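User: structure tokens for this one?
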Amino acid sequence: HCWNSTKVRDVKWVDFQAPLLHRDFIEKVKQYPNELIYGWGQDALSGMICEDNGWKVGVVDWCPVIHYSAHTYKEGKSDLNLNEYCQKAEGGMFNYFMNAGLMDRFNKFRELSGGYVYEY
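Assistant:
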């Protein structure tokens, strides 16, 4: 959504809606864990990686992007239905962050995502 802003808004996690990634970030991540193939676990983990390395994450609100919310699955272009997708996403994310000892950080990032303030 275009919030009529002309500034980059600092945020804690990467939203992979339309990312522009620095080469250092790509070299650091290389490949995401398989448990995070569904859902937004990659977004939160990327924010943690950026935080750990002192890298900033910003959102440009003046470029509108439409988020279809699991559009591929709603259109029947996947062998998973939306319920299966959500179960796999939640299960994979929670298992990964729990086993990696990152559940507290993951929950913090979830809380932060609901409180972003948009500048107009």
